[in-house]
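Entry 14. Structure prediction run on the chain below.
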Amino acid sequence: MSNQPDYSHIIKALQQKYDDIDQDTDDHLLGLLYSKPITYWDYIQTDALLGLQTQRTTLPDEMVFIAYHQINELIFKMILWEISQVAEKEDLKADYFESKIMRVSRYFDMLTTSFNIMREGMEVEQYMKFRYTLTPASGFQSAQYRFVEFASTELINLIDYRFRKDIDRDTPYTHAFEHLYWQAAGKDHKTGEKSTLLRNFEKRYKDEFLRFMQTYNTKNLWTRFKELPKEDQEDLDLIKAMRHYDYTVNVTWVMAHYNAAKHYIESGIGDGEATGGSDWKKYMHPKYQRRIFFPDLWSEEELQNWGTNI
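Output returned:
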């Protein structure tokens, strides 16, 4: 009696897999015969990843700044990956929704606590020197973070509160785009003209933003939540998870960012201005813009005091 394992069920499954996509199973098996074994560094693309940190100065702490922001962008990518699964889920249930929201919240919890790495990991004097080589670039120009916002809530909740009464679901996306809350941070408050920071940002990403806004108009997290059966919308674990996500992104994480920026910008070294020239305090502090993804999940008192008790 042979002790050789029986692989027939695996072969049959492979044949079915490749038949389903109109492929020749033999060709793929021959490919495996001649392929190289995978290694960690090839799979993770370690060499490529570690070659992406290019300093503009000779100041050592600039490396911390670059790597930290690249890590943030990787985390944003992971967040968008999780949100997209909720957006595309056909038979969406409360437990699945909650598990994905908590994954995203953990990423933002990590981002929140990670600001200490930048705040305590760079000498003020070094940062205040190399930051001038970044002008007019700014973290304001993180497109992925804007995608996270668009994918999290209905567009009206991202409109500058001064213009919300004049915008509804029938408003053209191009018009709504011009009244997003962060537009004000990129304009001269006296002339209304867009800064170089904002013009560069829009030149690179505006078309992508408009497409993304339209795509997620009907499948953002808030819309998908309101599509759930009433009993799922009243699921306490899901509500708790969504409130945690909302507060973490729009208050806790924002304030951690705000305090890190304040630590450097108001250090007494330099001109006290952000690299992109934005009115960074009013742009960043949650009590001014009152960004809230899921407004119906908060009491009237909580809404009125948003971002003030911190």
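The chain has a mean pLDDT of 91.
Filed with the rest of this week's runs.
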